[in-house]
Amino acid sequence: MKKPVLTICHFLYCHIAKPILFLFDAEAVHNRATSLGKLIGYIKPVTWVMKKATSTDVPVLTQTIGGIHFKNPMGLAAGFDYEAKLTQVLPAIGFGLGTVGTITNQSYAGNTEPRLGRLKKSQSLLVNKGFKNLGIQETLKKLEGAHFEIPIGLSIGVTNTSTLSCQDDTIRDIVEAFKVAENSTVPFSYYELNISCPNLQVNVEFYSPKNLEKLLNALTKSKLSKPLFVKMPIDKSNNEVLEMLKVIAKYPVQGVIFGNLQNDKNDPALDPSEVKRFSKGCFSGKPTEKKSNELISLTYKTYGKQLTIIGCGGVFSPEDTYRKIKLGASLVQLITGMVYEGPQLIGQINIGLLNLLKQDGFGHISEAIGTEN
Ligand SMILES: Cc1cc2nc3c(=O)[nH]c(=O)nc-3n(C[C@H](O)[C@H](O)[C@H](O)COP(=O)(O)O)c2cc1C
């Protein structure tokens, strides 16, 4: 399958749109882009044309996971649509799933600026939002009455406030947010539990097996109505991750997402001259890719039969996506690749995947999952 229009869009984005957009403040551009995306999402003739250009509705890429039907494996990762503006436009861009959030029980205005920055040489973004969001009530109110064409997930984390002073308080806060979601009529399909945001002032930690166990126990006491995925850190050792997975596997959790942002400023994929421009925050994009892939592989080898893996981190091309799938991911999410390569990247990845699967003699995406382990 070929779609020359996507190649043209890629050229126009990289040579005209991106050089202009990158002249302006990253957070301001992000806000404008999501508002534009929201507007386009409601203009049906435009989304119809976009869908014609991007869609790859072919059985080869479809999967049913946890009872949810996915047209293709490409998802928008948590953090881009934290104000729930894009649910209507995502299918037109070619996405097979999308996550709203991370949202929290109480709203949060965001950490002090800069909250977003670009590291062009490192192909990365600086992220220091700290769960800037409207709060779960307000966010769900915006989605009331909405119809979603693709599975939309809700990423939930802990409210970023120093008033939550002990672990039990933070657990109560997260459970409360899930309760609000459970009582809502918004037709979202899955949950992400974000335990891995590195930019918080709240004194909380869910990496130690004891604390993670307490949280999952409280959360799954009454059965959740939708599949739950846990968004994992990438800055823990393999042994620490295995300890966390051991706990997760005891609970009704559909899967894990590897993973979140790069905390390590000395990661070799980060250009030191770019890193030193920022005193706070963590990094997305290429500096997350190596560790994300390593942990996908580790999880597939140890819990591949039990946990669905969503790969996330440093996906900029069909080849990057395919690598995650062959290491064990069933679905793949991204943000930074789309910022650097353009929104047509999602359609290009789906088409690229079809070609890569065919080249390797696979008749369906599920046949390729985990084949490189
Ligand atoms: C601007 C921005 C905001 C983010 N906010 C969140 C968030 O709220 N919750 C979350 O789980 N991950 C968040 N992330 C992490 C991404 O979901 C993803 O795990 C990470 O960026 C690696 O993927 P990428 O290289 O494709 O961007 C954020 C990332 C970016 C770039």
CATH architecture: Alpha-Beta Barrel
Average pLDDT for all residues: 93
Strand content: 5-15%
Report the uncertain regions.
none
**What is the distance, rounded to the nearest whole angstrom, between the alpha carbons of the first and last residues?**
28 Å
Strand order in the largest sheet: 3-4-7-8-9-10-12-13
Radius of gyration from CA coordinates: 19 Å
In the CATH hierarchy, the third-tier topology is known as TIM Barrel
Small molecules in complex: flavin mononucleotide
Please identify the structural class as seen in this structure. alpha/beta
CATH C-level label: Alpha Beta
Q: With helices defined by DSSP (H or I, 4 residues minimum), what is the helix count?
A: 14
